[in-house]
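Appendix B, record 7
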Amino acid sequence: EHENLSDTPLSGDEENGGSEERKTEINGNWIPATSITEAKINAKAKRRLRKNSSRDSGRGDSVSDNGETLKVGVVPTSPKGKLLDRRSRSGKGRGLPKKGGAGGKGVWGTPGQVYDVEEVDIKDPNYDDDQENCIYETVVLPLDERAFEKTLTPIIQEYFEHGDTNEVSEMLKDLNLGEMKYSVPVLAVSLALEGKASHREMTSKLISDLCGTVVSKTDVEKSFDRLLKELPELALDSPKAPQLVGQFIARAVGDGILSSTYIDGYKGTVDCVQARAALDRATVLLSMTKGGKRIDNVWGSGGGQQSVKHLVKEIDMLLKEYLLSGDVLEAERCLQELEVPHFHHELVYEAIVMVLESTGEKTFKMILDLLKSLWRSSVITMDQMKRGYERVYCEIPDINLDVPHSYSVLERFVEECFQAGIISKPLRDLCPSRGRKRFVSEGDGGRLKLESY
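Structure tokens (predicted):
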């Protein structure tokens, strides 16, 4: 029996009899209960049909009359796969991105879209009259002492690598130095004291180029005043600091960025020994300038910025001074001060040529000792040593025109260098040798044979 699904109270006959068919009144008509039950079952099946058809649309599924799903040869995809489906759930559309790709979170429009400047609406309740007259500028806070040193140290150290003063000037203009402008020459000189002679030359050029653009002459004087006060501390790390600071002062006076009366202002007022030594050094250099010596060469010559012709001349003078004095350490120091490790092969070449052009044993032994010392101290690398010997091997035919016995002297010198461990066996074997003429007396059958040179 079907349950009574009606909410209508039972009549008296139904309560008493129970055997008669139950009826329900709908819209004034009495309908049997069995018809209502069948109608509810059919409605439930239709709801299930609509639900399954919308979920499994396009997968070949169908629903039977009793609500069971029938598969028509197509395996349904996982419901999770529908999460990444761009097609409309209603079955409409071609699966294209919404709004032509301009929609979605964090998207401001289609690629290449240019927005116009938004005009201010005067009727806007948030409109402010002063808003149109506002000028927005980027405010850079002035550097304090700690941030100053941390920021400028990498800039100056990088300048020692590229040597472009204009780049340093542009970078300093972007900073708000404030009252710390005078500290720029102080920091540059302090870093140059620990560097090479080429770094000091570059520092002098940097201070001269920055004067008038980043710092003033008053700032330069203030910076050297501070350097003289800090000389006792600088001398702890760089013992030659007093003499070097004196050379910086003399170079600044020579470049015109420091007054010529700057040194006279300290006469009789300096108690520090290091400061007096620096001022005395500057005074001596300036007095020598009046005698004809140029103050712009106070740091000597060296570095890759020098011309090849000048470097060849310096190396030639170095070797000649060594042959007169015989001081190997002094020659080594002078070679290192040139700061051209990529050009050391020139010294090897010039030294061997001097041996070939010499007539006595003194030059032979002194050059051999020099090359041996430079090789053991690693001042001249294996590559530079090899390149110098190969240059001599290539030019020995031209050298032999001026020096007839150059082949035999070269063979002997190369063999001595090999025995001393200066060169390797393959490099020794590359040494060219000049053949000699073989005459009739040597059993050639009356013929004269010329060996190749």
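Remarks on this record: Residues 45 and 66 are 6 Å apart (CA to CA). The domain at 145-289 is CATH 1.25.40.180 (Serine Threonine Protein Phosphatase 5, Tetratricopeptide repeat).
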